[in-house]
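Late entry, evening session. Most of the bench is empty. Finally got around to the prediction I had been postponing all week. Sequence below, unchanged from the version circulated by S.P.
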Amino acid sequence: MRDQSLHPDELLSFINQHDSFAIFGHEYVDGDAWWSMVGLGEALRSMGKSVTLFLTHQVPAWLDILHHACPTSLEIDETQHYDAVIFVDFSPLSRITKFLPHQEWILSHPLAIIDHHHEPNPLDIAVYHKDNSACSTCILIADFLLTYTPSHMNASIANALLMGIMTDTGNFLFPGNYENIFHISIALIKAGAQKEELTQKLFRSRSRASIQCSQQVLQRAVLWEWFAWSWMHRDERVAFGIDKQESKMGMNILASVEGVGCVIYFDLTPTEWKLHMRSKKLDNGEHISCAKITALFGWGWHHCAAGATIVVDQRYHIGDISCIPKEIGPAGLVQHIINHKHHYTVDHHEL
């Protein structure tokens, strides 16, 4: 179901009323979250505003590949003054658990939320600028800036926002409203974004270690008719010297296999599993929703790509079963999904 609550006039008024902003992205930022933060932050700076980008964790090296001038912080100092707070690429406070001890401080500020996820709007104090049919938060920010503050768009901002769009569309491979996606992307290129350079940096500059890691992931892969999954222990990945995002390249290769409509990759530790998913339309027209599956563990995201953290000794209610993940193992979880595929399909109009 479409959740569209776009309020560009209110967002513009919100920006004009304040001079200093604390911008937050969700835990373990992905490309869309990070480049939304940078693109919006740089735009606000070009308007003469003061900006700090708050992160729960360090930005992965593979993402932090464009120069920007926005100050960043991994900690909140409540003695520092900000006029307002902006959440980008998430809505609920549960997506920034590291900063929950500062919840009262955060919510004491005027708040705006710019997001495109299938998540509830839990904070009635916020100005919402949201459309879950959009391919990325970057495209919402780009559309807003190009329409309402075009004089503040420059090549640096355009590069950041196009980078986020490219990461969240799989370099324009995932399903989406491409009439709008290409319209905004072309406008960003006209504003100075260098698509060829971004493609080279993001998709054609893999380290040898990431290739070796992917080889191991592919060797372990199990493929059924329409499903594939694989795994790696985190200490193995660390030994390769790469972060979890780089290790997912093997998953992306599996997702490109003909006839495979859903892929799961597990990043395993003794206490938790990081579950990463990709899906595409099956030959029979069905589409497995990644968001419906990760919602079993209290997470969400997109129908075509999603993730979750699974605590291995916690009991979960998964459809008609109640289980503790470490007792059934990743294979048991995968088998349940396969056996109950009809619970997790979506109509193509929902994509």
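Two things to note before I forget:
Residues 4-203 form a domain with the inorganic pyrophosphatase (n-terminal core) fold (CATH 3.90.1640.10).
Residues 143 and 183 are 10 Å apart (CA to CA).
Will write this up properly tomorrow.
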